[in-house]
Amino acid sequence: MAKDVKGKTSEVKANKKETAVTAEVKPAEVTPAEIKPSEVKKEEIKKEEVKKAAVPVKKAVSNKVKKVGKETMEPELYVQYNDDPAGAQEANVNDIVAKIKALYVSEGHRESSIKSLKVYMKPQEWKAYYVINNKIEGQVDLF
Q1: 3-class SS at 27?
Q2: Which residues 6+ apart lie within 8 Å of 116 measured at CB?
Q3: Element (H or E) spanning 102, and its range?
Q4: Residue 61: partners with Cβ closer than 8 Å, 6 or more residues away
Q5: Of 17, 59, 88, 114, which residue is the least packed, with the fewest Cβ within 10 Å?
Q6: What is the pLDDT of residues 5-44, one digit of tens each?
Q7: Does pLDDT of 2 surpass 90?
Q8: Is residue 132 packed enough to be buried (19+ CB in 10 Å), middle (13-18) or exposed (0-12)?
């Protein structure tokens, strides 16, 4: 064992082919007086620039997710009924829902107040019965 300049012990190992020196060294402590204010400001500015640059990227990603969520597939549903005296009849469910909403609005309600809509179709009676918000009931012509 040998002592180095600072008084710390170091271990020297010798081998025929190589010589290796290992020493225990502690990192130097920096006092606040040694830090220059100009260096701190530069680091803070760099951190703020990185944060500002990262924000638009997150917004762009979140906008894409929202757009994908809005593009849902809506199936087209048709009701077909063959009545001997009247012949074959067909009604589009989307048209029936539009009729129900128009009737609801004509009664003095707002379309945005519709929270739930249940439609029951009876082709034998040529009617579509509906229930809006589990309170208001009515009927419209199916064909």
Answers
A1: coil
A2: 131, 132, 133, 134
A3: helix 93-106
A4: none
A5: 17
A6: 555 555 555 445 544 555 555 555 555 555 555 555 555 5
A7: no
A8: buried
The letter for the amino acid at 86 is: A
- DSSP 3-state assignment of 84? coil
| Model pTM score | 0.49
Q: Three-state SS for 34?
A: helix
Dihedral angle over CA of 43, 48, 53, 59, nearest 10 = 150
Chain centroid to Cα 36, Å, comes to 44
Of the candidates 104, 142, 100, 106, which has an alpha carbon nearest to the alpha carbon of residue 125?
142
Give the count of alpha carbons within 13 A of 46, CB side only.
6
For tokens 């979140």, what's the residue?
62
- Please report the DSSP string for 7-47 in residue order: S-EEEEEE-SS-EEEEE--PPPP--GGGS-HHHHHHHHHHH
Residue 126, Ramachandran bin (φ over 0: left; ψ between -120 and 50: alpha; else beta): left
Amino acid at 37: P
Between the CA of residue 64 and those of 47, 51, 60, what are the distances in Å? Answer: 27, 21, 6
